[in-house]
Amino acid sequence: MKDNNSKLIEDAKLSLKNAQARYSNFRVGAALQTEDNKVFTGCNIESSSYSLTICAERVALVKALSEGHTKFSTIAIYAERTDFCPPCGACRQLLFDYAPDLEVILTDGKESKTYKLRDLLPVAFEESQLNKK
Ligand code: THU
């Protein structure tokens, strides 16, 4: 594990404290690191209209993008009620759109597993398809 990843993992763990997860009671935290080593955190925000819920990963991503940060290296994800919480399909797609080479760290707080986003979303739909033909 890279030294600076232990801080990122800690940031993911801490960020779930603000989760709004009253419907699922499943709190998730994410910490997204930019290429210049800034960190944007996110937690899941649920809605009574369930499908409007936003995952921790997308909250972290839109926070960063909305503040002008567009280059990302790593995301750490932590959920308190499961060991290694993989990002959902919607999050994989949105993260891929902005950071196809992202490293994804799933952590249970003690151990972590690291993946390439590309491996988590094979044969991804991407921008280049929009311009073909
Ligand atoms: N959730 C996340 O925030 N990230 C994930 O990687 C998986 C799921 C949230 C969405 C919802 O608020 C709750 O976890 C249960 O699905």
Task: Explain what this protein looks like in three dimensions.
32% of the residues lie in helices and 23% in strands. The chain has 133 residues and is of the alpha+beta class. It has one domain (3-130): Cytidine Deaminase, domain 2 (3-Layer(aba) Sandwich), CATH 3.40.140.10. The protein has a five-stranded mixed beta sheet with strand order 2-1-3-4-5. Helix 3 links the parallel strand 3 and strand 4. The longest helix has 13 residues, at 3-15. The chain is globular, with a radius of gyration of 14 Å. The model has no long low-confidence stretch (mean pLDDT 96). The structure holds tetrahydrodeoxyuridine. Tetrahydrodeoxyuridine (THU) binds next to helix 2.
Q: What keyword list fits this structure?
A:
133 residues, alpha+beta, Cytidine Deaminase, domain 2, 5-stranded mixed β-sheet, 5 helices, 32% helix, 23% strand, binds tetrahydrodeoxyuridine
